[in-house]
Specification:
The chain has 189 residues and is of the alpha+beta class. The protein has three helices and 13 strands, in the order ββββββαββββββαβα. It is 21% helix and 35% strand. A hairpin with a 2-residue loop joins strand 5 and strand 6.
Length: 189
């Protein structure tokens, strides 16, 4: 290897993706299809990359040496690895409602939020995402597509973002909200 060639190596892309016994992976041209106990998912791989199955592992390699190929290599390896993980065990995000009178309830597939507005906010989950309400102040978003689960959780959080003075709003479980002092804190200091 010559000096400078290592800039086109992907640390993530060169790692093989191990395929568990419960999962079936098929290659149909440029489409990778993954079927598992939780569902099925597929992705179309760009022409700069080649996908092969060897000894129970999926390997991705570059076909061309274009500047975009290393970025696509690592990105598509991560996307396919997330597909394998998602069809085996679902991804989930947990949201918490913080505030006096803030609560959530589930009616059918939809979740109704009472979060300080003059009207209730109804959240309809897209196909492939499940919303659960274990208690009145917790919402669990789960599904096999990691990107979709994260986007739905972000959209729910966006309805009432946590505010920095009292910390009220919808936040991810474990999220730390940096608090501000407010007017009284400025004058007294």
């Amino acid at each position: 290897m010559k000096f400078g060639e290592e800039k086109y190596m992907s640390r993530i892309g060169k790692l093989p993706i191990l395929i568990p016994d419960a999962i079936k992976v098929t290659l149909e041209g440029a489409v990778v299809k993954v079927v598992g106990p939780k569902g099925e998912s597929s992705i179309s791989v760009p022409k700069e990359l080649a996908v092969s199955i060897k000894e129970g592992a999926l390997e991705i390699s570059k076909k061309t040496d274009t500047p975009e190929a290393p970025a696509l290599w690592g990105t598509y390896r991560a996307l396919i690895a997330n597909m394998v993980t998602g069809v085996m065990t679902e991804f989930s995000k947990t949201l918490e409602l913080v505030g006096v009178g803030y609560r959530a309830s589930k009616t059918g597939e939809d979740v109704t939020l009472l979060i300080g507005f003059s009207h209730p906010v109804v959240i309809k989950p897209p196909k492939g995402v499940t919303l659960n309400v274990p208690d009145q102040t917790t919402i669990e978003v789960s599904g096999i597509d990691k990107n979709l689960v994260g986007q739905v959780a972000a959209n729910i959080r966006k309805v009432r973002k946590p505010e920095p003075y009292k910390g009220k709003g919808i936040r991810y479980r474990g999220e730390v909200i940096k608090r501000k002092a407010g007017k009284a804190g400025k004058v007294g200091a």
